[in-house]
Amino acid sequence: MIVEEAGERIAVSTRIQEDGQLVYDFLWIDGPGESDYGFTLGLSTHPAGAPQPTLTDDELEQHARQFVRAFFAPDGIGPSDFPDFVAARRDDGR
């Protein structure tokens, strides 16, 4: 799934960790830095035999959008740690 927010694209994928827990990886396509940039979201562990908790597409989209908005916020990590990236995005009209 690809989520778009303010011209930024976040790829969302799932994987199972060694302990069997489902996690969601959010990878910023063409994001800042020289390597992959994003975050991983896991849900609380569940008792053996219980159904694995999951997130809906709407919930995944909400997490991705909040991530982008928080990054570009005046007090976010973007302006403080990636000022050139933020300036370039503003120059692009994003």
From TrEMBL:
<protein>
    <submittedName>
        <fullName>Uncharacterized protein</fullName>
    </submittedName>
</protein>
